[in-house]
Description:
single chain
Amino acid sequence: MFKKIFGAIKRTFSSKKNVPLPPRNSTDIDREISALYEIVIEAMGSDRLVLQAGRMDALRLLRSNNPAERVLALRRILEENPTLGPPPSKSELQAEIVRLSELLADIIARRQVEDKIDKKVNEKLERDHQDYVKDIRLQILKDENPSEETPHDAKKRELIEQLEKVQLTQSVMELLRPNSLEEIIGQERAVKSLRAKLASPYPQHLILYGPPGVGKTTAARLVLEAVKTLDYSPFAENAPFVETDGTTLRWDPRDMTNPLLGSVHDPIYQGAQKSLAESGVPEPKPGLVTDAHGGILFIDEIGEMDTMLQNKLLKVLEDKRAYFESAYYDPTDERVPKYVKMLFENGAPADFVLIGATTRDASSINPALRSRCAEIYFEPLTPAHIIEIVNNAAAKLNVELEAGIAETISEYTIEGRKAINILADAYSLALADDAENIKITKNHIYEVAQVSRLFQYVTKKASSQSAVGHIFGLGVSGFIGSVIEIEAVVFPTEKGKGTIRFNETAGSMAKDSVFNAASVLRKVTGKDIHDFDVHINVIGGGNIDGPSAGTAILSALISAVTGKKIRQDVAVTGEISLQGRVRPVGGVFEKAYGAKQAGIKTLVIPKENSKDIPPNHLSLKIHAVETAEEAFKFIFDDEINVIE
Length: 644
């Protein structure tokens, strides 16, 4: 039955005008209803209207000759509600037709807007589809012809090529850097030791100690080039020299990033290369230890390197390989490339010689790492070394120096690199003054010193004139020695009621040395320190190594009490015991450089330190003594009377 009704209505709506004809003797209301149906059919289509009428239970109502039922059918179709009813009464019919007209107008307006939007969406989809197809074609062409560039890539490459053509002059440091081992000034013994340890068929790992700017890095690089030519050298002609800095080595404790030892980039979060990421394969990336395989890994400022990273480096030194681990690695996965399997299963080769350089004390290096390395100490530079460095640099710059320029620069620094920087700055000033006749004068040096806020490195100078109560002791900080001026003055007072005043900032150990010296004073001269008001001062203040200043404090105290003059071209170091024995101290080698800087000619050291320093080192007269009485022979102008 339903199919018959559906077919009849469809045939009715498929007539010439696709609308049901108004009944005979139709009224204006019938015509208005027929017009509404015509509009609905144009908007929805006859097929859709029939389907909608079926869903809304309005098929029977559509065929009715009763205008009210036909309005109810139209209402159900437009409002999409099959439960609406009953049909409007005759008095409500006209109002209902008006309301349906407005509803139909809203539906048609909305339909038109939707059609416009759909049209724009379709147009956009079509454009995007065309762009996508174009990109696919370009990618296919690129894959088939990988060497071809896009216009954008070509433009970028041309820009880089243009930048490559622009070159400034080489830096001064590059120009003046030593090009041979003979040009490394003041480090003959260190360079000899360094070469001997690398030239062996069994080269050793090394740690180089020394102040900055004395040539540690340059020496290591040049020594490698020198030993490559030896028949018995294990280093090949192309042995790499990989340089890094311990202060800049950063790593992730989870080993997700480690530029030194290598790391693994997982295929999900860290972005392994595309060919591996698409297969879910992690990418192992060897680090600097593998780059240095067969050569030298030079780590500057190794003392600044993280302690845990030092331990990890120690493991690599022992295994001579760097190993990788990843939860994403599946050894049974056939998609894993062979080289990735090799790295995960065998590790990356890392057979190299480690050379670490540091300006810090040996205590900053991992003891286990130190035990596997030979240690070489580079020596501080003397004024004579700085003078030679400056003159060599001036020759390379092809510039004339006013008399005494090199000596003036040597007063401002003990670093070879800093001396060259001062000379280069002065060269720039001289060039600005007269580009035709370049001559560096002392005024240029002083101007550089003022602008750079430099100060004379050595302000304490030895003298040929002896003095009472004044002596030069010796101290050391890091790898730099220096002279310490100690002075003493005494005033006779009521017997046994004297006081002792000493720098509080010098430290408790230094104060203990004063009391030790007071006991030795009484033993040597028979005078009681408590019969005097005593004031002992360390000029310049600062905490000092009290024990090593003991002999110097004793000498200044005896000079103040007895009036004996102390030679001002002598420096002394050594702990003093209550029995008057001069005990050994540390840093004697570095202290000798401090003495030389200050113009000292004679050095008095403990007997037990005599092996720490070669005879006539730095042209100093070095006297090793066991007792205070022996030291006095070289410190005082006149002999001290000893109480038996």
